[in-house]
Specification:
With 698 residues, this protein is α/β, with parallel strands linked by helices. The protein contains 17 helices and 35 strands. It binds adenosine monophosphate and magnesium ion.
Length: 698
């Protein structure tokens, strides 16, 4: 079972805990693809319910499937429901609590409700523990004074979970009874408002699954990785969310496969090893530093190679990892080295159709006894071929014992019993050695590699059926400007069509990323801020175009500046006005120029390698080729220039206009001419460097 998002909630039975994060309050941990976000502090149950409801709705609207875990019992020991509601339906118990419980940040009626429930049972109990000064009718203060209520002390789950507290205890260190009573009404409402499925009572068919969890199952990892600046409860949900979201779907399926008793269960019980494995070995990308785009101060114009080196050295992967079937691997980035599971070829075999024997065969005539039978691909010969004998072998057939050399069938005369041919034939001729291509356990493909169709063949040949890959980088594409209109719509003279977004979306898709079309932002700071807030939740990186300079309407750069992370790059390059880069929260934003020609060229030169690194790939620079120019050009020193170009009759031609407003020149071109920083007088026939769009992955 696959969930896009895992939410883990550390619940609390207590009252409001104030504005700053404290222990024993409510925390929510969110993780996707094995990467967890900083947990959210929720000061009381009312705030928590609002936040969780909103969160689940947002996820549903985005089409994401959520597993939402809560650390309190979803059910009571066998027999409880019948007495309370007259049925063993666990949801009847939820409804009962939803109707009875009154809750506010400062007080609630849980002890009175527990006393009321005890009144339904014979003897004393089952609930006990009272944190109030006043006595509560029929609710004993001590567990030891209970007797004769007739219910088991623990659910089967608590019996199995070492150290788990019984649900009857409502107060005292470690007690979970109160948070269960105070949690079930909230779950009951969430179940209805979000249409959630509840584990293990019903099949998880809805896009939200509510699941009981107990972070102590991975307590060792939590303790060992606890950072100083994170409350323990927060770190528990952080670690558990990350672990569950990092689990392979089939392992999670194993955890979820429990009987649907009215008691419920705890996710991972009996499979602690799987849970621990996922908790210990997550792919957790380190957050980017706030100054990751900041070029050294005092530099006015940065040469392109310096700017690129800066991206290479300061960015790091932000993607998680997952396993995909080999078939789906092309275009993905390997998250780990892949090793050959067996040698290729696995056994010596024949490279041709012919006759196998023990070589070599000296110069001169050879007559050999032909054995009955043959070795064909997929049908090996299981006998031994004695010296001086030969066996019919076909291409790809395993060479049997006694055969190391093959003579081509075209060079042989055959009778029923014998073959005759002329030597010399060297030892090993026409035979492939075991492992000559790949040895078992040899690394065949390196982490960071963008998998090609050929790589699938290589991995398949070495017996690999699944590939560890990075999760797809989610790239948000945003256009900015009041003048922009959707292509094809009715426009006034002052309006222009949004040319960048379709182009940049297609480029990001061609690079193998998950494209998130963020639409168009007007030249309005407030609206742009809202768009960036929402986008940073659904994207790993945002690429915008327009509004990136320092003008009145350049809101992208002002917002990044106010966020304290703007880096304005003045790169010594034409085309390309300043590039605005920064972090919006933790999400990198690359602000490209608005002009489509500059936007595309800056995307190819800067966004491509930057995204490669963020996606977990290896840094690479585009391959260029020298060719003879058809054109004349006088170039100034001090900046790099890119000209729209194509190969025509084996020579490098450029688009007749260098005007950066001429979008059609991008379609005319099949690549770029790259001229370095020096001054140059180019004449027809001179050698220039041409970089085809293919070298940029298009
Ligand atoms: P700006 O950087 O916002 O000042 O934009 C520079 C130029 O590019 C202006 O002429 C804009 O109208 C134009 N422009 C900006 N965004 C786009 C776009 N998405 N499609 C086409 N032209 C654009
Ligand atoms: Mg603009």
């Amino acid at each position: 079972m696959k969930f896009d998002t895992v939410l883990m909630v550390d619940w609390s039975g207590g009252n409001d805990r104030g504005p700053t994060p404290k222990k024993d309050s409510i925390f929510a941990g969110v993780a996707r693809n094995g990467i967890a976000q900083e947990p959210v502090y929720l000061r009381n149950r009312q705030v928590a319910e609002g936040w969780i409801t909103e969160f689940l709705r947002t996820e549903q609207a985005a089409g994401r499937k959520v597993l939402a875990g809560f650390d309190f019992a979803f059910g009571y020991p066998m027999g409880f429901g019948e007495v309370l509601t007259g049925s063993d339906d666990p949801f009847a118990v939820w409804d009962w609590f939803e109707a009875k419980i009154e809750d506010s940040p400062k007080s609630n009626n849980r002890f009175d409700v527990a006393g009321e429930i005890n009144a339904l049972f014979p003897g004393v109990g089952p609930f006990w523990g009272n944190a109030l000064k006043r006595d509560v009718k029929r609710l004993p203060r001590k567990g030891s004074t209970r007797e004769g209520h007739g219910l088991p002390e623990k659910r089967a789950a608590e019996e199995a979970a070492k150290g788990a507290f019984p649900v009857w205890q409502l107060s005292g260190a470690g007690a979970v009874g109160s948070q269960t009573i105070m949690g079930l009404p909230v779950l009951s409402r969430l179940r209805k408002t979000c249409g959630a499925s509840v584990w293990p009572f019903e099949p998880l068919t809805a896009d939200v699954a509510l699941v009981e969890v107990w972070p102590s199952l991975i307590g060792k990892v939590v303790a060992a990785t606890q950072p100083d600046d994170r409350v323990r409860d927060a770190h528990q949900v952080y670690t558990l969310a990350r672990a569950v979201s990092a689990m392979p779907p089939d392992e999670l399926e194993t955890l979820l496969d429990v009987p649907a008793t009215p008691e419920g269960s705890i996710l991972g019980l009996g499979h602690e090893k799987l849970l621990m494995k996922a908790a210990v070995a997550p792919v957790q990308a380190p957050p980017l530093r706030n100054d990751c785009f900041a070029l050294p101060p005092g530099v006015t114009w940065t040469p392109v190679p310096k700017a690129l080196a800066h991206l290479r050295d300061n960015l790091s992967p932000v993607t998680g990892s997952e396993t995909v079937p080999l078939h789906d691997g092309a275009g993905r980035i390997l998250s780990q080295d892949v090793t050959a599971l067996r040698a290729h070829p696995p056994a010596p075999n024949s490279a041709v159709d012919g006759y196998g024997f023990a070589g070599p065969a000296e110069a001169g005539e050879h007559v050999m006894t032909l054995l009955e039978g043959r070795s064909a691909a997929g049908h090996p010969y299981d006998g031994t071929v004695p010296a001086g004998h030969a066996l019919r072998v076909l291409t790809g057939a395993v060479l049997p014992q006694g055969v190391d050399t093959v003579v081509l069938q075209e060079d042989v005369n055959v009778t029923d019993k014998c073959i005759a041919f002329r030597g010399p034939i060297r030892l090993g001729a026409n035979a492939r050695k075991a492992g000559e291509d790949m040895a078992a356990d040899q690394v065949i493909l390196r982490a960071g590699r963008l998998l090609t169709p050929a790589d699938l063949a290589t991995a398949a040949a070495a017996g690999v059926g699944e590939l560890p890959v990075r999760t797809r980088l989610r790239v948000g594409i945003l256009s900015t400007g009041d003048e922009l209109l959707a292509p094809g719509s009715k426009a006034t003279e002052g309006q222009i069509f949004d040319a960048n977004r379709p182009m940049l979306c297609a480029i990001a898709a061609a690079w193998g990323y998950k494209v998130v079309d963020l639409g168009r932002a007007p030249d309005d700071r407030g609206q742009l801020r809202g768009i960036l807030d929402r986008a940073s939740a659904s994207c790993d990186v945002i690429i915008s175009s327009g509004g990136a300079s320092a003008g009145d309407e350049d809101h992208m750069s002002s917002l990044l500046k106010n966020a304290g992370s703007l880096a304005m790059w003045r790169v010594a390059m034409k085309p390309g006005r300043p590039l605005a880069m920064g972090l919006w929260g933790k999400t990198p934003v690359l602000g490209l120029p608005g002009n489509p020609v500059a936007a595309m060229i800056c995307a190819l030169i800067f966004a491509r390698p930057a995204l490669q690194v963020l996606a977990g790939g290896t840094w690479s620079e585009p391959e260029g080729y020298m060719g003879r120019a058809t054109f004349r050009k006088s170039k100034k020193a001090g900046r790099r220039e890119y000209l729209r170009a194509r190969i025509s009759n084996g020579r490098v031609a450029i688009f007749p206009s260098e005007g950066s407003g001429r979008v059609s020149g991008l379609s005319w071109a099949t690549g770029l001419v790259e001229l370095d920083d020096s001054a140059r007088e180019i004449r027809p026939g001179d050698s220039v460097r041409f970089v085809p769009f293919g070298s940029f992955g298009l």
